[in-house]
Design brief:
- The chain is an alpha/beta fold.
- The protein has a single domain (about 5-130), classed as 2-Layer Sandwich (Nucleotidyltransferase, domain 5), CATH 3.30.420.10.
- Helix content is about 40%, strand content about 20%.
- The chain has helices at about 30-45, 60-70, 80-85, 95-110, 120-130; strands spanning about 5-10, 15-20, 25-30, 50-55, 75.
- It has a five-stranded mixed β-sheet.
- Helix 2 (about 60-70) links the parallel strand 4 and strand 5.
- Helix 1 crosses helix 2 (about 60-70).
- It is globular, with a radius of gyration of 14 Å.
Amino acid sequence: MTRIVCGVDVSSRALAARIGPDGAQNVFPNTVEGIGQLAAFCHTHRTQLVAMEATGGYEQQPFTLLSAHGLAVAILNPRQVRRFAQSVGRDEKTDAIDAGLIAWFAQVRPCPPTPPPAPDQQHRRAEQVRTTGTHASNGSRS
């Protein structure tokens, strides 16, 4: 039996979510409130795993808060997901398509949940974002 996966395409402002490769979908703001709505969406659909790509840091707050809502979350390598998309002939690029591809990838590949960071690491990351606006160790912004 295939596990229920919610794929999430993360950007600085939005979280495009899709259940499986072609299931229910919605877009939520990448804010504390929006992440809470995404958690409710996942619980409503009995999601067993939330999968998202590493995006230079914009995935950290959703990852941490979804984990706090009791959801298993896997952070995926975007290069692997892109190669998977190419191998199945999916070159179109929209947020909904990307979210579906992320979910499909996590359904067919072994993608264990990523352990949440230790509380002191979470605090340091939050402080870095608050004081500098930097979302990743390389200083990238969007």
